[in-house]
Amino acid sequence: MANSVSLSWRVPIGSVVISYDVEWSSGTWCPGGIVEATFTVSGDTTSHVLSDLTPGTWYNVSVTARNLAGSSVSEIVSFKLDESAPSAAPASVGVSSTSFFSIALHWEPVPCMYQNGGITGYTVKYWTQGNEDSYITSTVDERTGVTISNLVPSTSYYFQLAAINSGGTGIFSDPISAETTLSSGETGADGLLATTMPIAPTAPPSSVVVRVESSTSITVQWGPVECRHQNGEIIGYWVRYGEEGSSEVQMVSGDSSGGMTTITGLTRETLYTVQVAAVTSAGTGVYSQLQTIETPDSVYLTLNGNVIQNDGYVDLNDIGSTDETALLCHTNRPPPPGTTNSGGDWFAPDGTLLDGTDVPGFTGNNGAMVVRLMRATGTPAEGIYKCSIEDDTSVINTIYVGLYGSET
């Protein structure tokens, strides 16, 4: 920093100088600053260094030679030191949240004696909490306030500020520690933390999937709202569903990772629409696109009882290919040598053929046929069911099972 200058002069001709008075004055505008000074050096000295001067400031200097006969004053010499970057941070920095997407900063200028030249603007450095290495900078003019826009709603930001002159960028204010951050609207001296105002999510949950659970229920599952559109902490979800021309809503607890719910009490053979929206403290966000699904007329049966008949039995089994639970029909008699069990049907107690999806499978020497039961509306819900297994030579083994089915 250029804050000193070297002075030199010649001894007056034909004079024996006793001492020299060096007088200087500055054109500084700083209140209370030193504007002039005089000091004396011995007569055999012809140079001196002026130090602790202020960069970017005009100075006037004159030298007076003194002897026994009197004194003689030189011409006044004027010079200006080069500007250097401000040596202090702006004072009384404050922040306040002004909208969902912006925060306002205000400050007082760098103290005059530390400006080191004419302030031409300010650099604002800001970042989200925990991301100091990914800061953003913005330059503003010589005003003492600015609004930073295009921020993420309901997000905490740190700010630092430095003044600029022709000598460069000055000292930044120090970031404040997490334990002593200031709330939105408060003011402080150095690097500040402010929080934007909250806003509802600006995008819907992702990957919304709706599937039938039974003739009167459906399951809805969804993924997270994209992070940059969450705009705050997700505290739950609204699931909106209904028949054409009407709708109901159901609040579901969840977090930013997504969620799932089962809606019950629906009407069979009815077309429903479903949408999901995330919720923050600021309100309900954007709903997902309409998903349409129709509840079936038939219902599934679950196994409540089991009576072994005719060398066979029934149990519950998980069908990996459909990821659903099904009824597994076993026969204790293996098929004839060289044959396999190739098909199967289920019959209700009244002889009604039950609609199902045949999934063949085998356990040890016992041929097994998985039949996912779909019971038509109006057929008995419980009683003696018949499982008919056919091998590839059309030999049919019939198993009678006391199956107490319950609707799901």
UniProtKB/TrEMBL annotation:
GO terms for cellular component: membrane. InterPro entries: FN3_dom, FN3_sf, Ig-like_fold, RTP_Phos/Ushers. Keywords: Receptor, Repeat. It comes from the Eukaryota. Residues 1-84, 89-184, 204-298 form the Fibronectin type-III domain. PANTHER family: CYTOKINE RECEPTOR (PTHR46957:SF3). This is Receptor-type tyrosine-protein phosphatase S. It comes from Geodia barretti (Barrett's horny sponge).
